């Protein structure tokens, strides 16, 4: 009897079901945040919809107890995989004092949580790349068997931080995985107006590392590529560049109107390839996601998200007296 795709990758039925659960949880939290924003309860949403497969597939290929994640602002799937909770994500969206990312001080999407080795980012895009390289350098100097995963959009691959970081990692053979989440748009700029080469992964050769482009709607393809890159990093062979190609299913943010720069037909066509549909179908075809399991999962996630929403909405804001905390040293 031939093995299914996930079995060939060393993944059990329960592991791929858990991957799907995390993808679906990210999507449903995101959808709830849009409803909260449109009802005037939270100020801003920057969405993960359409990129969950790449985020979760990559994360599950790593050691979630020891490796480091340096996510970009859409990476809800990454931070959920690394241990951030729905309550904590909602606390950030509501800008409450308990928000573990910044105590309600930064805009949503600036993920950071020391206990789960999620390194905080910044509004200027791509600044997380040199930080990931620094972690790789520290791991090499201290002989630690860890890798750092840094993610960013295809637009960010044009920033100096990416090129400097990739060059340094390549020269020093550091255990860093550079993963481009190519969602086809840098805010309103389509990918063909961002890069002259055919693929972002083509840039890898200039930095002495392998580059690979994979289907970002296929979590198993992303898992396989990232696992290979992680093994390469742990073996001392240096960094890798992975381009996961998907599509941003929402406007850039809750403040954007994407109808001004792309056609509805284009978005509708992309929705047919939505990873939650395609991966869900794979799990149904393999008998892993039964009707009963699916029904139970929907109810479980609904309860989790309702709890997270209620908890965050009722939680206190930071006190005015704490305004200068973490700004000036006592």
Automatic annotation (TrEMBL):
The EC number(s) this enzyme carries: 1.2.4.4
Domain Dehydrogenase E1 component: 20-320
InterPro entries from the UniProt entry: Alpha-ketoacid_DH_E1_comp, DH_E1, THDP-binding
Keywords: Oxidoreductase, Thiamine pyrophosphate
Cofactor or coenzyme needed: thiamine diphosphate
Pfam families: E1_dh
Catalytic activity: N(6)-[(R)-lipoyl]-L-lysyl-[protein] + 3-methyl-2-oxobutanoate + H(+) = N(6)-[(R)-S(8)-2-methylpropanoyldihydrolipoyl]-L-lysyl-[protein] + CO2
Signal sequence range: none
Source organism, top-level taxon: Bacteria
EC top class named in words: oxidoreductase
Family: Belongs to the BCKDHA family.
Function: The branched-chain alpha-keto dehydrogenase complex catalyzes the overall conversion of alpha-keto acids to acyl-CoA and CO(2). It contains multiple copies of three enzymatic components: branched-chain alpha-keto acid decarboxylase (E1), lipoamide acyltransferase (E2) and lipoamide dehydrogenase (E3).
Matches recorded under PANTHER family: 2-OXOISOVALERATE DEHYDROGENASE SUBUNIT ALPHA, MITOCHONDRIAL
The protein, known as: 2-oxoisovalerate dehydrogenase subunit alpha
